[in-house]
Amino acid sequence: MRAMHASLLATAAGSLAIAALALATEPADKGLVSPIYGVSLPHGYRQWEVIAPAMEGAPLDELRVVVGNATAARAYRSHTLPFPDGSVLVKLAWKQKPSPEFAPATIPGAATTVQVMVKDATRYAATGGWGFGRFIDGKPADEAQHRSCFACHQARVNGHDFVFTRLAP
Ligand code: HEC
Predict the structure, then answer these.
(1) pLDDT one-digit tens code per residue, 1-42
(2) pLDDT at 56
(3) pTM of the prediction?
(4) Is residue 45 part of a domain?
(5) Are 56 and 62 in contact, with CB atoms under 8 Å apart?
(6) Is 167 a domain residue?
(7) Of ligand 1's atoms, which has the minimum distance to the CA of residue 39?
(8) Residue span of the structural domain in which 94 resides
(9) Interval between CA 117 and ligand 1 midpoint (Å)
(10) Most exposed of 5, 56, 59, 86 (fewest Cβ within 10 Å)?
């Protein structure tokens, strides 16, 4: 009886360990990953290092900031290409808005999209080693939008590991 108890406990502990592992590696909600790539919004990206700002004129009129996790930032600083596995780049974007305190200055208005690129050369071998995710209000955009990501990055920056943004001087 005691032996059976012990083995039941061991089994329970085993499944707990597996559940904890799943929690650490899987996004909490499967509905929050991008179609095709299964990329989620990474934790803590608002605290990541700034790689460079960008902006786009009409009709989008957006201000953007590209940030990178520690692996990506290190690769930028050491001029390492291709980016190593585990590199993550996030592009935040907002509508441009004149500052209410000083009109010639432009400030971020409403947030538009958050876009993510995750490097995993094995998993994403078919798309240059990058997985893509586009999020609006925290929710992934549809599959059709995700079909366009790699095509544009591949056509224009295949000589820079499919990444447009350079480290701002
Ligand atoms: C028509 C071209 C085009 C398409 C389509 C496109 N991008 Fe980009 N992407 C850019 C450009 C240009 C930049 C450089 C930053 C900027 O100007 O906004 C960029 C930058 C990025 C960055 C920052 C890293 C880098 O390469 O500079 C991420 C992350 C990103 N895009 C994700 C995506 C995702 C996800 C999709 C699909 C939903 C996508 N992109 C579709 C043109 C494109």
Answers:
(1) 444 444 444 444 444 444 444 444 444 566 799 999 999 999
(2) 97
(3) 0.86
(4) yes
(5) yes
(6) no
(7) 35
(8) 33-160
(9) 9
(10) 59
**25 and 37 co-located in one domain:** no
What pLDDT does 21 receive? 42
Please identify, by atom number, the ligand 1 atom nearest to the C-alpha of residue 93.
Answer: 18
Distance 106 CA to ligand 1 centre (A): 22
| Separation of alpha carbons 90 and 155, rounded Å | 20
Q: Whose CA is nearest to atom 30 of ligand 1?
A: 115
Ligand 1 centroid to Cα of residue 66, in Å, is 10
Q: Which of 91, 83, 34, 85 has its CA nearest to residue 62? A: 91
For the record, the structure tokens of 129 come out as 């080693």
Domain count across the chain: 2
The pLDDT averaged over each successive group of 10 residues in the chain (169 residues) is 46 44 48 95 98 97 98 98 98 98 97 98 98 98 98 98 98
For residue 134, give the CATH number of its domain.
3.50.70.20
